[in-house]
Amino acid sequence: MLLYVIRHGQTDYNREERLQGSRDIPLNDTGRGQAAANGRTLATFPALELPLAEFDWVASPLGRTRETMELARKAAGLNPEGYRINPLLVELSFGDWEGQTLLEVEAHSPELIAQREKGKWDFRPPGDRSESYALLAERIDQFLSTVRVPTICVAHGGVIRTLFNRIGKMSGDDAAIIDIPQDRVLKIENDAIGWI
């Protein structure tokens, strides 16, 4: 397997530390700059195995990932629209917590925040559509089973955390708390995972 993964660029929700989840929040100016810079990183990466146009390019269907993809492709000298979407890559849903900061949630639900801190990987926020990282990982397992050619993917922080669990063999609770930058490209080659 050869997979390069980019987290979408910054949004205002990221800047404000709001739980974004499956809400369709657009990039801000910082995020647009990060997306273009990641495209330039790929275009100038000396160890790239194939010409960029020969990779399968795939993104989460949310607007912030599609915009990141298009800006990255344009910066890399490719047709911005030459990619496909895959709904398996959507960010995990924070359910009723989406749009709030953790401090705001803690003000009305301190017991749930305490429960989350004890085991973030398996914790599921309230709400019908909410997910835990463990549930998200099941979707990402499905996605990984479809990666048969060298691929460049634009996804979300939660998706990348599950990759560190699945590919990097990091424990779920450790993977759920690692920082995922928006200005770096992750390379996965077989069982090796790391930032370029």
What would you note in describing this structure?
The chain has a single domain, classed as 3-Layer(aba) Sandwich (Rossmann fold), CATH 3.40.50.1240. Helix content is 38%, strand content 13%. It has eight helices and six strands; from the N terminus they run E-H-H-E-H-E-H-H-H-E-H-H-E-E. The chain has a six-stranded mixed β-sheet. A hairpin with a 2-residue loop joins strand 5 (185-189) and strand 6. The two termini are 17 Å apart.
SSE inventory with pairings:
Elements (H helix, E strand, L loop, with lengths): L1 E6 L4 H4 L13 H16 L11 E4 L3 H13 L8 E2 L16 H7 L1 H9 L14 H12 L6 E5 L1 H10 L5 H4 L9 E5 L2 E4 L1
Parallel strand pairs: 1-4, 2-3, 2-4
Antiparallel strand pairs: 1-5, 5-6
Helix pairs in contact: 2-3, 4-5, 6-7
DSSP strand tally: 6
Q: Which architecture name does CATH use? A: 3-Layer(aba) Sandwich
CATH class: Alpha Beta
Overall pLDDT: 97
In CATH, the topology is named: Rossmann fold
Q: Helix and strand string, N-terminal first?
A: EHHEHEHHHEHHEE
The CATH homologous superfamily is named Phosphoglycerate mutase-like
> DSSP helix count?
8
Shape: globular
The fraction of residues assigned to DSSP E strands is 5-15%
Radius of gyration: 16 Å
Q: Span between N and C termini?
A: 17 Å
Question: Which tags fit this structure?
Answer:
196 residues, alpha/beta, Rossmann fold, six-stranded mixed beta sheet, 8 helices, 13% strand, globular
